[in-house]
């Protein structure tokens, strides 16, 4: 039998959709924590170096 194309929902969301969902989840956690007087631990991010420094430091860029 011939298989039909599956045009249903995508099982793996796009990176953009994942990022949006993660942001919404973080905002919701923050609101809930504030409502109960708690603090949500946050990841401390390092400042990203300018692109020209990243290209020089990366061995795969050559």
Describe the model.
The protein has two helices and no strands. 0% of the residues are buried. The longest helix is centred in the middle third of the chain and has 21 residues, at 15-35. The chain has 62 residues and is mainly alpha-helical. It has helices at residues 15-35, 51-57. The model has no long low-confidence stretch (mean pLDDT 76).
Throw out a few tags for this protein.
mainly alpha, flat, 62 residues
Number of strands: 0
The total count of helices amounts to 2
- Radius of gyration using CA atoms only: 21 Å
User: How helical, in percent, are the residues?
Assistant: 40-55%
**What is the SS-derived class?**
mainly alpha
Query: β content, as a range?
Result: under 5%
Residue-averaged pLDDT, rounded? 76
Distance between the termini: 50 Å
Sketch the major β-sheet. Answer: none
Q: Tell me the overall shape.
A: flat
Low-pLDDT segments, ≥5 res: none
The topology string of helices and strands comes to HH
Task: Write a short abstract of this structure.
The chain has 62 residues and is mainly α.
Layout: helices, strands, pairs:
Elements: H1 15-35, H2 51-57
